[in-house]
Amino acid sequence: MKKARGLIFRKLPPMPIRTLSSLLGPGEAGFRTALSDKTRWHCPEAIETVEANALLPLLSLDRMFGSGAVPVQQLRVLVNGAEAMQSLYVDGNGLRTDALQSFLKQGATLSIADIGAIVPQIGELAAAIERDLGVRCGVNAYITIGDKAAFRPHYDGHDVLVLQCQGAKRWYSHGTTHPYPLVGAQVSAAPEPVWEAVIGAGDLLFLPRGEVHSTRPETAPSVHLTFGLTEPTGADFLTWLSGRAGEIEALRRDLGTTLTPDDRSVREKTIKAAIHELVDDASIEQFLQHQVMRREPRPVVNLARVSTLNGSACLTTALRRRVDLKGDEPGDLAVTLGSKQYRLSQAARRILALLGEQDRARLADLALATGLDAASAEFISAVDILLQSGLVATTD
């Protein structure tokens, strides 16, 4: 089986964008540098217009709104920096499509939060970005058919990667007024723009958190996706450490409000010494591994079983991070992923690890790579448990 791990998968035919590399194209190196350095980055025509359109076609959006597939809680109606009250476009039956159409005619922007939960291809892409970068990735969609701005100048508390899918918008950068913010905010008196560009279909734009920006529709209808990239911070590291403080006796003790000043001073030194020891014994690597293991898989439902699939059927992983699944250890092992524990065979763990590296693969290739017969009970059982547990999903 060790030898099988080195097998190279047969190249799959070209498919819609589902990985970070396929999204970034030749601009990948530039993006990674910008992400690391926290600098603005613009890549015109990063992908073909037809590929950008295909991620979120206008016809699909029409059908989503018309069929009620967009949950009320995920939709915001924005115009000139203000948000419309939900009661103006929601009734007891859900979204009022006539009201939404009216708002759009007035120049409003429709914002759909967590669009990946509605559009599987975008959900797969967001999860693949997480696995590649090791950061949280959330995706929102913005649809505009008028010429009014959705937001006033503002900055975000996370990095933003923008993909224009349809139409075009003019983006303005007003510089950074508050470096490395933890939450976003509007800026009442934004500085004059220091940079601007028209972002057309297929263009990518990266803005680091804290960079004040604004937009103006240029060519309607405009549809763009924002991938919010959230890296753990020093503040997150301290929060994690505080969760471990309860394991230390000195830090469970009272601060000493009833003690004399001299005795309280002794208590303070003891507490500070325990805090220093806690910090010195911990590492950022430990914290990051904890974050990896606690990240919930992407929610999926599988109606299929292996017996209903053929060897050319493709699977993709629901895991948002690359996890050490201990594929070399024989037998069944308990694996904690997110808030749940799963008991997985060695074959199931190897299949899941392979999908984490390949993003998607044919059943026949997975069997070959694990050194198993695709028709064997061991392979069928392994894939079935992964499907039933929602750790993998079928994909095209």
CATH homology-level superfamily of the largest domain:
Cupin
What's the end-to-end separation, in Å? 28 Å
Under CATH, the topology of the largest domain is which? Jelly Rolls
CATH architecture type of the largest domain: Sandwich
Taking the sheet with the most strands, its summary is:
9 strands, antiparallel
What would you say this structure looks like, in words?
- The chain is α+β, with helices and mostly antiparallel strands and 396 residues long.
- The protein has 3 domains: 12-230, Cupin (Jelly Rolls), CATH 2.60.120; 234-290; 306-395, no CATH class.
- The chain is 34% helix and 25% strand.
- The chain has helices at residues 20-24, 28-37, 49-55, 58-67, 97-105, 120-133, 234-244, 249-252, 261-281, 284-294, 346-358, 363-369, 377-388; strands spanning 41-43, 75-79, 82-83, 90-91, 94-95, 109-112, 136-144, 154-155, 159-176, 185-186, 195-200, 204-207, 211-230, 314-317, 333-337, 340-344, 360-362, 392-395.
- Strands 1, 2, 3, 6, 7, 9, 11, 12 and 13 form a 9-stranded antiparallel β-sheet that branches.
- Strand 15 (333-337) and strand 16 form a beta hairpin.
- The longest helix has 21 residues, at 261-281.
- It starts with 19 loop residues before the first helix and ends with a strand.
- It comes from Sphingomonas rustica.
A few lines on this structure:
Keywords: Iron, Metal-binding. It contains 13 helices and 18 strands.
Write the topology of this structure.
Blueprint lengths: L19 H5 L3 H10 L3 E3 L5 H7 L2 H10 L7 E5 L2 E2 L6 E2 L2 E2 L1 H9 L3 E4 L7 H14 L2 E9 L9 E2 L3 E18 L8 E2 L8 E6 L3 E4 L3 E20 L3 H11 L4 H4 L8 H21 L2 H11 L19 E4 L15 E5 L2 E5 L1 H13 L1 E3 H7 L7 H12 L3 E4 L1
Antiparallel strand pairs: 1-12, 2-3, 2-6, 4-5, 6-7, 7-13, 8-10, 9-11, 9-12, 9-13, 14-17, 14-18, 15-16
Helix pairs in contact: 11-13
